[in-house]
Automatic annotation (TrEMBL):
It comes from Streptantibioticus parmotrematis. InterPro entries: Acyl_CoA_acyltransferase, GNAT_dom, Ribosomal_N-acetyltransferase. This is GNAT family N-acetyltransferase. Residues 17-175 form the N-acetyltransferase domain. It comes from the Bacteria.
Length: 180
């Protein structure tokens, strides 16, 4: 039986960002992400962008499989990245994020991950949020750890990335874990 549709709310993400549902106005964000050499390899963002990428985000919420958020900068309303939760059984969810190349290094991923994780525990009552990071991805590892995630182990040959099986570090955060 399919899950009921998920509501993707608007959430504050620190003082500088807000999380909100995807709209067709976010196509420039998808276009920038599509041109990045890594984002299309590890996510569902297509290398040749189209409005279908936004529709896929809507579909996740409609089918009850996840809560996809755009990270929007408060000062100018520009969409600068995405963060999401993908439902898993037994009170768990998996988090993921990517940031537009032009917005990296400004705390976008950290603000988004903290906001979505806090919301997952408070509003959804989740017992655990997991995320997976390639061992070489120092920036993503630092973001996860700064948001209170703890590395739990190396999953060998866990995921296919660009046609090659890759190892992933598994991180998790529980409601009782403190940030950073």
């Amino acid at each position: 039986m399919p899950e009921p549709p998920f509501d993707v709310p608007r959430l504050p993400a620190g003082d500088a960002f807000v999380l909100r549902p995807w709209t067709l106005a976010d196509l420039p964000l998808v276009e920038e992400a599509s041109a990045d050499p890594y984002i299309p390899l590890i996510t569902t963002v297509p290398a040749a962008y189209s409005h279908a990428a936004v529709e896929r985000q809507w579909d996740r919420a409609t089918r009850g499989t996840g809560w996809p958020f755009v990270v929007e900068r408060v000062t100018d309303g520009r969409a600068v990245g995405t963060v999401g939760l993908w439902s898993a059984p037994h009170g768990r969810a998996s988090a993921g994020y990517w940031i537009a190349p032009s917005a990296r290094g400004g705390g976008v991923a950290l603000a988004g991950l903290r906001a979505v994780t806090g919301w997952a525990f408070a509003a959804l009552g989740l017992a655990r949020v997991e995320l997976y990071v390639e061992p070489w991805n120092t920036a993503s590892r630092r973001t996860a750890e700064s948001a209170g995630f703890r590395v739990e182990g190396l999953l060998r040959s866990w995921q296919e990335v660009g046609g090659v099986r890759r190892d992933m570090l598994m991180y998790a955060r529980l409601p009782a874990d403190s940030e950073g």
